[in-house]
């Protein structure tokens, strides 16, 4: 019992895979909750829409998340099998990462479109497009990270996921707290640009690093599958 309760913290302290992917997923989760809490203020404050109409824009986030998740769910295993066959029938956890590449690009693009189109007071469909793209980027990276961690740590996958979930839950709590002050100081355009830049700096290198060096990192790990 003691080992099971402390293992997630040990994994986070010792495993570069859990650290990097955990920090990035925490950032993703924070942005998701930031969107959830700030959408009404955008469409009620900037577009002067009623509470009921402003709430309908959550549909854009739902379309992005649902559409991308369903597409990825239907292609992830096919991509894995294809890459495995090209690798002599030997599978690797890194074969779960291809969907993360477009995910890390769609998220900052969606943030930029949402922020600057809202600040410019363009037609409401434009920020909705940005919101949908951000949602698609979020879920593609989410699914890839979770699948990669499970394939990497196998027996200790629950502990690795627990470490990541703990960190991302804290981010989901913190991000909505500073969002109003950030947007008040920077505005919607610059505020979302800051989020996009951080997403690029943290997220874009991650799939490349693990695609190229993932096997080496796993071989040096005590808990990961070699």
UniProtKB/TrEMBL annotation:
The chain crosses the membrane at residues 21-43, 55-74, 95-117, 129-150, 157-181, 193-211. InterPro entries: MFS_trans_sf. Keywords: Membrane, Transmembrane, Transmembrane helix. It is a multi-pass membrane protein. The keyword NAD does not apply. It comes from the Eukaryota. This is Major facilitator superfamily (MFS) profile domain-containing protein. It comes from Rhizopogon vesiculosus.
